[in-house]
Amino acid sequence: MSTEYLRISDLHAFYGESHILHGMDLVVNRGECVSLLGRNGAGRTTTLRAILGLTGRRSGSIMVNGRETIAMSTHRIAQLGVGYCPEERGIYASLSCEENLLMPPQVGSGGMHLDELYRMFPNLYERRHSQGTRLSGGEQQMLAMARILRSGARLLLLDEISEGLAPVIVQTLGQIIRALKEQGYTIVLVEQNFRFAAPLADRMYIVEHGQIAEEIAQGEIETKKELLQKYLGV
Fold first, then answer.
1. Average pLDDT of the segment spanning 203-208
2. Regarding the domain delimited by 4-89+153-232, which CATH topology (the fold level of the hierarchy) does it fall under?
3. Domain extents for the chain?
4. Given strand 82-85, what is the order of strands in its sheet?
5. Around Cβ 234, how many Cβ atoms within 10 Å?
6. With 90 as the cut, is the pLDDT of residue 106 above it?
7. What is the per-residue DSSP string for 25-93?
8. Helices (H), strands (E): how many in the chain?
9. What does pTM read for this prediction?
């Protein structure tokens, strides 16, 4: 079995006439957490959306678990075990927490059962009968993550999951990501919050103008502080 779970080569993506990604190249190995860092508008979220075919035109190559997906429809890509947690979360306001959790179809075997999810996200168990609109921002974020874990996805695309949340919730989300890594999930984490992403990521790619500007391994953070300051201002 290949160690590569995701390989993106010379990826170009467009929204209408706007050319957003200009030849992205990156690799995510099985069981890794890789973070895409960069300023707003750099192309990080577009990269996640392009993996699932949610942009307009795209060209190049996107290999998911050994399968070329560049010409596939979104639902076919999802069936390969790709789960996307968008920044806007997509919680159905009129449904209860548990109804939201049960709604998405299973795309692969091995999805977590409700009792497993409630052990991982005890807040959701306590709020399982509450309407989506009554959940806090942190609870909505947990629900958005729990939904894709129930689906059977093994490649998790997480977009700005820490944004706007209280520090105690951000800390909990970090613990959950570590637990998922231990269970063999492969994670691509788009984050503006460097201090949240850096301890979780095995490697970091800095995205600038729709391309990879730098790759930084976990052990190189201290020696590459000037680069991080240049691109991220951290």
1. 95
2. Rossmann fold (3.40.50)
3. 4-89+153-232
4. 82-85, 155-159, 186-190, 33-37, 203-208, 211-217
5. 12
6. no
7. EEEEETT-EEEEE--TTSSHHHHHHHHTT-SSSEEEEEEETTEE-TTS-HHHHHTTTEEEE-TT----T
8. 9, 10
9. 0.93
